[in-house]
Amino acid sequence: MASKILMPNPSVNHVAYSASMVPRSRSIGQVCLPNKSTSETTASVSQSPVASSITPTMSTKILDKTSSSRTSTLAHMWREVHGCNNWEGLVEPLHPFLRQEIIRYGEFVTACYQAFDLDPNSKRYLTCKYGKKNLFREVGMGNPGYEVTKYIYATPDVNIPIQNEPSCGRWVGYVAVSSDDAVRRLGRRDIVITFRGTVTNPEWIANFMSSLTPAKLDHNNPRPDVKVESGFLSLYTSNESDDKFGLKSCREQLLSEVSRLLNRYKGEELSISLSGHSMGSSLALLLAYDIAELGLNRLSPNLDIPVTVFSFGGPRVGNLGFKERCEELGVRVLRIVNVNDPITKLPGVFFNENFRVLGGRYEFPWSCSCYAHVGVEIVLDFFNMQNPSCVHDLGSYISLLKCPKKGDQVRKDENIFIRARESILSRAQNTNMEPLRNAASNLVNLFQNV
């Protein structure tokens, strides 16, 4: 097949926030935001193996103190903050309203982690600990101006013979809608759908089912060229089909509730905001695409309800066809990633948007099978040698956005791969193992260039 000649076109917009206050040379349009000191980052991530138990009330109080002077401006520019112009002029430097919104939606995701019951002896095991009316208060958010309307469950279509967990739906998030008071502050009625990240064993296995499969979410137009990761699609579409009274799929629950709310608030100015961390960001993007593909957000041929995804530490979800279709449908995605977070480089470590063209002009025949990120990317840079898991921790992401500080203990050009190489090479040097040194250097250099 003849190669297709393409004009150079960056696939992802980047804005980088670095601990060193010096832009990283490999990012585009960098802006500098220092991260917290190592000791503070450690404190923020030590409370939970899944996500830090940060206190969302802090930023809520700050917002309340300044809302009287900023309300009118935020209400007037909410469409720009939610990406109607792909955040042009708002990320370099990061606009305070955009930062405020990113943190706010991140805290909605944090509530999912804090409310998820992982106690096998509890009656609410694998579900939410609290009722819908009390959720925000119980997790320390007070009254954020939203009412939870629906809890969402996903059923992993994965069988593990040795697992002790029941094969049933797990609570993955919730749907909420802004109150009348919040409408006046935000400038519109906001429907928010929030997803937590991976916690249980079947979810981890679903995450590693790295193969592309046609999404086919619109039966009237299957679009076979639009492909998504099979594990994420399985979580999104699987149900307890053995029982006619069983749990419906995550997709059916979500589309039903979104349709109900859109009909209830018909005639008002609306927005659909989706946020998620890790696996949750994948579900958020699949739902955003689904809503737009089915036209649920279409008010008229020339007027759509904005659909925006705030993704924290999210992996790739689909191929280039999926990315292009999301852009065509007007789905806006803001990806907040840590440059040291390996999850954001998966799936498609080798075959991704960076390897589909030669010299930026000649497209390889297999480019349609490459994974591709969607949207605008804001790059953070943090690492803690005492707690390496912090690189993917949602609390670390939010803490850095909340409280940037100078003087971080991490050197400006270091990242997780450089640190790993130095550690391995040091051990190999001490034991005089030349093959190990060469293998370590080559392996780390390979992943560093991914």
UniProtKB/TrEMBL annotation:
The keyword Chloroplast applies. One of its GO terms (molecular function) is galactolipase activity. Residues 192-349 form the Fungal lipase-type domain. Keywords: Chloroplast, Hydrolase, Lipid degradation, Lipid metabolism, Plastid, Transit peptide. It comes from the Eukaryota. It is found in: Plastid, Chloroplast. Its main location: plastid. GO terms for biological process: jasmonic acid biosynthetic process; lipid catabolic process. Pfam families: Lipase_3. It catalyses: a 1,2-diacyl-3-O-[alpha-D-galactosyl-(1->6)-beta-D-galactosyl]-sn-glycerol + H2O = acyl-3-O-[alpha-D-galactosyl-(1->6)-beta-D-galactosyl]-sn-glycerol + a fatty acid + H(+). InterPro entries: AB_hydrolase_fold, Fungal_lipase-type. GO terms for cellular component: chloroplast. Belongs to the AB hydrolase superfamily. Lipase family. This is Galactolipase DONGLE, chloroplastic. It comes from Populus euphratica. The lineage of its organism: Eukaryota, Viridiplantae, Streptophyta, Embryophyta, Tracheophyta.
